[in-house]
## 1
Amino acid sequence: ISDCLNFGNPEKPEVMWQFQQAVGGIRDACIALATPVVSGNVSFYNETEGRNIPPTPTIAMVGLLDDVELHVTPWWKAEGDVIALLGQTREELGGSEYLAVVHGKTTGAPPWIDLETEKRLQYVVLAAVRDRLLRSAHDVAEGGLGVALVECSFGPPELGIRIAAEGGMRPDCWLFGESQSRILVSVRRKDMPRLRDLAAEHGVPLATLGEVRGRRIVIGDLIDVSVETCHDRSRGGLARLLPP
């Protein structure tokens, strides 16, 4: 990896603490995943009108793919494929885009993460790729599961989904919480038993969410919107934020 660490005024204790925590987190992750840091840079004193920018550590990463035929893309491939989630969703909204965008709050503890859990998850996904089980794979990151599900519909081809809503959790936490160590995948129905066995063998939770179907995003009785509408909103987001 290479890192680019952007922070505010390090003479302020809270900013130096943010920087120290970011460096410590990168160190821990790289040790756990046996990934070297080959370069990087640090930028301090990033302020606007006396206000520090949010702490912004950025990671660039490259790796080797021995067989290009085994690459996996994030979008759905065919109607009827099963959509599944590897990893565990928790009721946590701290530090999420949902809190910032919908409620205007930058607050709360960041999502919990255990690097051994992350390592097992990555192993299962790579093993499933080698066994040609996965049709698609996409990390669950900013915006949570709801956003990841929609992003996977932005093909080619553009395909919709039918997902059963989670009944045992607050809908906003389930849809927009940013719990770590989760990857959204799709597989042919006949391959689900093999994927389930692989996940169970390595102690990685696996939940079947629904299937690829139609041209609408349908999530229980919570969301029903066309893929075209979502894609238009995504592509035109920056233009709507900027003044004419």
Note: Residues 13-32 form the longest helix (20 residues).
## 2
Amino acid sequence: DVNWVKRMPMDTHRLVPRIYKPCPALQSVVISYAVASNAYPNTIIMNQPAFPTQYLIFYPHLPQTYSHDAKNFHSLSREIFVGPFTKQVYLISEPSAPLIIVRLLPGYLHRLTRIPMHEVLNQPVDGADGFTTEVKRVNERLSFAKTEDQMIQLIEAFLLKRIQTVKDALPIDHTFNLVIADPNRYSIDQLADLSCVSVRQYERQFLERIGTSPTMFIRQARFMNAMRLRRIRPELNWSAIAYECGYFDQMHLIRDFKAFTSTTPNSFKTWVFGPATNA
């Protein structure tokens, strides 16, 4: 019922995650861990923009449900991985239902699962499909953990074992972080040169490891930076943000805003894990 969805609270002030840094041995794999739960007494709905991020997510007790259109919702598995999304997702969270988000470095999800990322475009995937049933045993242990530190330790033990068989990095893998750090600095020709391949080979490898085209990834990285800047400097107007983040003009930013959130800057109210925390 879309009308019921519209009446639900659209606010994440009580869903701000606690951020944890990975241990040194996993800093080339994991950007951060986030632990969050819905502290409201009621169910809430959230709009997650299409950022160029890759996640492994655990729901130790009750998973969220999701929808692309805020009309047809589907239950998630209790453990999922999330590859490329090029459109926003609506998520419904029940009260006091915790979740643990492992934010992976760009491209690492392919290396961990060996799944071509373009095959899972715009769809959350059951964790067992890429990580075997061991991921479900980890989640079962998470449901009995008494502290967030214990949760992180369980996940890190799983990942430390997993990376022993990970695919080797290619030169292209190093370019993903360059784009995230500065989406406007490099052309695709330059990124291909840095990867020691032709532009065509670069685009093919990019599709396998990221799941989208380099152009889409650059657009999403620029948009993520704009959202982060808005969160940490709310006094800036959208025209100033567009300029700071390398857009041609404000209308260029608005077009991306509509593409990745299905709304306009002035109408957008919430996101799941705020860019100000790098989540």
Note: DSSP finds eleven helices and ten strands in the chain.
## 3
Amino acid sequence: DKIKYPLLFKPIKLIFHRGDYVVAGFDKSKDQFMTINVSKIKEYELTKISFPKKKLLELGNNELQNRFGITNNINRKNYIIKLEFSSFTGEFISHYHWHDSQKFYQLENGNWILQMECGINRELIGWLFMWMSNVRILAPLTLKQVFLDQLKNINDIYKIESNLKYKNVFVQ
């Protein structure tokens, strides 16, 4: 959905994410949860309009639990995500917090499985690319297909010499 400005926004939470501050809240006109990078806000106006912050904070926190990071998911579904990591990489990442639902276990061959339940979004895909050939998507098939589609798109930009153009493949 396109954002219509001016936006009457109900802020509920300030989040420090990947080196940036992001404000999370709800668009009053649609009651839609959204996150806005603070550096992208050019101007704002404070109003005296009140809203049930405690209730919205609970709804917002639930929405964030369904995401890997803060970006919108490709759909409204949560998936059981299973990833296999090489032994060295798996041991390394098992010491960090990536999602509240994460569970790690080691296989007999030394590799590691990470299982978590969340939606699929651009942050998850980018995070998977970060581990390069040290990760394999075991489930779900939807995640594997989105990942492979992005891999094809990346390969295509090297086949055709053309100008790079920004496109957010997760926004229709």
Note: The mean pLDDT is 93.
## 4
Amino acid sequence: KNPCIISTKSDLILRDFDLIARLAELTYVNVACTITCMDESIRRLLEPGGAPSRNRFGVLEAFSGTRVTTGLHVMPIIPFLTDTRENLAALYASGREARVSYVLPGLLYLRGNTRQVFFSFIQRHFPGLYAPLQKLYGPGASRKAYKAEFYRMERQLRTAFGLQSNY
């Protein structure tokens, strides 16, 4: 009867569907899928070991018919790559279709060695984004202004698609 939260980028969780659904009859169970974009060519670069986004929405839809709370985790959102209105609208439309209980967005936050690895990846795969991202993640107020504008747009879309942010 121990509550649990399962967060995944895989669809293999469906192998244990019956067990998880039964557990949700006894206690709180949350199944969340992290889904960052609907463009599979970008998704494969960002998450080479992850299941396709459509498969992950299939997981959420399957569990939405049970007592499991389902969550769409949209993180990390990468500025200038996965932060577009079009991408978020596609994700939120699919979330609504899958009847998710909530959506939890989160912008990319760079700490420690992650910063160097991230910028090496950007230089290799998206060189045109290197300078704008360096500027955004450098010192100054641009990050704060960017965040405020992004989350304003995100709230508008979440409201438009009738999605909750409270999990």
Note: The mean pLDDT is 95.
